[in-house]
Amino acid sequence: MLNDAELGAIAAAVKEAEVATSGEIYCVVAPECSEYREVPLVWAAGAALLAPVLLLMSGATISVSDLTGAWTAAQAGATAQRAVQEALAGVLALQAALFVIVAILVSLPPVRRALTPAGLKRERVRSRAREQFLAKNLHQTRDRTGVLIFVSLGERMAELIADEGIAAKVAPDAWAPAMRVLTDGMKRGKPVDGFIGAIKLCAEILARFPADSADNPNELPDAVVVLD
Q: How far apart are CA 146 and CA 22, in angstroms?
């Protein structure tokens, strides 16, 4: 997570960006947007279901005792049935063991992050950003000019939401350069540089909404909110 000096640098960048605009930039940082508890279960179930297929593809066969001797039909049938039952029990035991082992391995945070689909991460980050937009009252600024910059460090993803006062006049793709700078900073392990670069680019867009020098209240805190 970010230390106090880094949080202070981001807050200073927000304050500077808001000097000449009625726009309000609000930054939120989350360590991770979800525990993705379903991911280990899905991978474990997939491994367990795939095990019999891999056994068949590898040429595994069921072997029984030599039936060429003086066996009756009933004895031969019982022996074959027992062999099949033992094979099925072995496959079920293998599936259960694989399920438990894979579930434990994928539950490890680094492994889980690597194996969680990017689409699922993006959906969870977007959902959490929308939640924070409403929870922090960004939709209640005087001119509806709140802009949320939401970052999830675990997913290394960011989301930007502009309130309707700005969104009505700014195309969604106009924010893409700022988001690229922000996510690039996270991937390089320099989230502060990414934040400050993104805030400066957002300030250029928000310059379209000049502030009234005599009436430009700071409606939202400049400090970065760090979620638990």
A: 9
How far is Cα 21 from Cα 6, in angstroms, rounded to an integer?
24
Nearest to 52 by CA among 62, 63, 42: 62
Cβ(85)–Cβ(78) below 8 Å: no
Give the whole-angstrom CA distance, residue 221 versus residue 207: 19
- 147 three-state secondary structure: strand
Centre a 10 Å sphere on the Cβ of residue 174 and count the other Cβ atoms it contains.
16
Concatenating the DSSP letter of every residue in 192-205 gives HHHHHHHHHHHHHH
pLDDT in tens, 92-139: 888 899 999 999 999 999 999 999 999 999 999 999 999 999 999 999
DSSP state of 21: B
165 vs 135: CA distance, rounded Å: 18
Beta carbons of 106 and 40 less than 8 angstroms apart: yes
Q: Model's pTM, two decimal places? A: 0.81
Lay out the sheet containing 157-162: strands in order across. 157-162, 146-152, 24-30, 225-226
Pull the structure tokens for residue 99: 């399920």
How many C-beta neighbours within 10 Å does residue 6 have?
A: 18
Burial 196-228 (b: 16+ CB within 10 A, else e): bbbbebbbebbeebebeeeeeeebbebebeeee
Strand partners, 152: 30, 157
